[in-house]
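Limitations
The structure tokens in this dataset are predictions for the assembled complex, not deposited experimental models. Users should treat interface geometry with appropriate caution, especially where small molecules or nucleic acid strands are included. An illustrative entry is reproduced here so readers can see what is and is not provided.
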Amino acid sequence: MTEILRIHQLSISPAQSPERKLVNQVSLTLARGKTTCIVGESGSGKSLTALSVMKLLSPQLRMQGQVFFQGQDIGQLNETAMQHLRGRQMGMIFQEPMTSLNPVLTIGFQIGEPLQTHLGLKGQALKQKVAALLEQVGIDPTRADSYPDELSGGQRQRVMIAMSIACEPVLLIADEPTTALDVTVQAQVLRLLDDLKNRLQMAMLFITHDFGVVADIADEVIVMFRGEIVESGSVMQVLQSPQHPYTRALLACVPDAEGKKVLQPMTYDWLTPA
Amino acid sequence: MTDILLQVRHLHKTYRQRTGTLGLHAHTIHALDDVSLQLKQGSTLAVVGESGSGKSTLARGILRLLPLDSGEVIFDGQDFLALDKSALRTARRHIQMVFQDPFASLNPRMRVGEIIAEGLVIHGIGNTQQQHDSVVQMLEKVGLQADDASKYPHQFSGGQRQRIGIARALILQPKLLICDEPVSALDVSVQAQILLLLKQLQQEMGLSYLFITHDLRVVRHIADEVLVMQKGKVIEQGSVETIYNAPQQKYTQQLLSAIPGHGLRAITA
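Predicted assembly:
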């Protein structure tokens, strides 16, 4: 088991008010070929945690604690060194495929960009690699000259995935990659991500608010609430016997396809001990 | 036939799309292709399909927010498509809509109270005091507070905004509520709250829902009847139990197998 990522007591606060912890003492490790899901509602700090791994936090936020990527403390790295990691060793997929692609560049160019920058590919070799990537994510390679607006939402997300895995990173961070997609397309994209993770033996940090998705893709689960980890463990442990009341409440919200379950609204009673 | 609130027969809607060099070639897209449905008083009909299946076109067509090519919409015994402008305005009072995006569908420059009261003002119902009272009542009904009326939409979370959207739709005491993906932009935990609220309001106010969604998990928890659409056509319809337990069409089976959480069921069963 090769450790790819280790986050050690990560805390994030606004520079203006350091006593407010948006993320509080979060620690986790992630191994090659494994998927860890961070689950939580909006505002739980799950996206901030992911961004801090890439050192993409807004300058108005202060980060404490350490992030080790392949044993290296990224806190010690300068911006140039980070640029060599981002897109090369760490890939990231964002939630909104519409806003994260450049509308005036062809998808072929955008997928080729990291290959030019990091691997120095050009000409025919670049074209071939882009075509191979498109094929890998299930898009007809002849569409390399298309612009993002000519593609559907699911196809755009596939383009994002092709971009993020272009340089075969060891770590892939996916921030709610399927939330904006239709259910059928979501199922395809999840399968694709899982396939690629296995084939390239990547470590995947997958962020979501949907426990249904977690069950389909995760090895390990981390549940976050208001900046803190309230529960973590293997997917079996957490889903089968959730220990924390928040995890139980979050599970009770997920509608089931059988309609057997009585939906429960989210409650926070447990916050105030009786 | 009094218990059928909405009857839709043979709706057609086509769009022309230009393709090729300079858009010289045009072809026709059937957004709605012979769509028929009926909705019983007090029940919920879910329209399910992927993007591009025509489900939102259907909702807008019924409300006459876009012109239809042909077909019949009988609402509450009235031929909805034959109404003239002023009759339409009066009749629309009884059909209201809740939209998908709670961020885009509320005017950021209006106070919540004004947004909710607008329907009353337009239809000239009650004086200012009465309008204010109904707004407060409605806010409380959807789980917000009276003093929220003086706030602006940006002061609310996504789930709260969707409650405001529901309050705005219900202030005119409509008979039919068309919900176009009302929970798909929300977190799962907030989704459950809104679904439960919609169910509760349905019982209290005797509402009928036309519920548009791509999420079959949600359908299972809200609908009585389901209609599955693909590429503008109705390919299957029936009660929730029939559709889930014995889907006839391959496409419906595909939609069902795409539901996330097969693993969840296996683990928590």
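Some entries come with short summary sentences. For this one: Chain B has a mean pLDDT of 90.
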